[in-house]
UniProtKB/TrEMBL annotation:
This is Bacterial surface antigen (D15) domain-containing protein. It comes from Bacteroides cellulosilyticus DSM 14838. It comes from the Bacteria.
Length: 161
């Protein structure tokens, strides 16, 4: 099963999202994951509720264009004849902010992360390990059974983060 969601936005943006669940012969191997692409206009609202509540939103104060991609597949192998699966996962993310408005450019945390009046780019990637227990009768629409998911991710400089 490969569900896909697409959103076209009135201001020229688009969001694509997929969260596949692929089961291979005999359910010995599975590929799950999350894949996303986003290109939208957004607003920086400041930090905290009171700032957001009283914030002036416009293309000269708070608006910016965000583009981002996430590629996050999980590879699961059945251990023997059990209901336990284990395997690796990777997570690759790229973020690109362009046309940042004044309030975002003036934000200290934006500057500290490397943002400038031209924008901000960030790439990070990580590797991880998954361990799942799955006794569901029908994984896509279970009537009975249990699903437990344990995972750990590592994002370090040598992986590009």
């Amino acid at each position: 099963m490969v569900p896909v969601a697409i959103a076209f936005l009135f201001n020229g943006g688009i969001n694509l999202f997929s969260k596949p669940q692929l089961f291979f012969k005999g359910d010995r191997f599975r590929i799950f994951g999350k894949f996303a692409y986003k290109n939208t206009e957004d607003n920086f609202y400041g930090l905290g509720y009171s700032t957001n509540k009283n914030y002036v939103r416009s293309d000269t104060t708070s608006q910016y264009r965000y583009s981002g991609i996430q590629f996050n597949p999980w590879f699961l192998f059945r251990l023997g004849n059990s209901n336990i699966f284990a395997g690796p996962q990777i997570d690759i993310n790229y973020d690109d902010i362009t046309k940042p408005a004044k309030y975002l450019v003036d934000e200290p945390s934006y500057k500290a992360a490397g943002g400038t009046d031209k924008g901000y780019k960030n790439f990070n990637s990580g590797v991880g390990f998954l361990l799942t227990y799955d006794s569901r009768d029908i994984p896509a629409n279970a009537y009975r059974g249990t699903y437990l998911d344990f995972r750990g991710m590592m994002y370090t400089k040598f992986l590009g983060s």
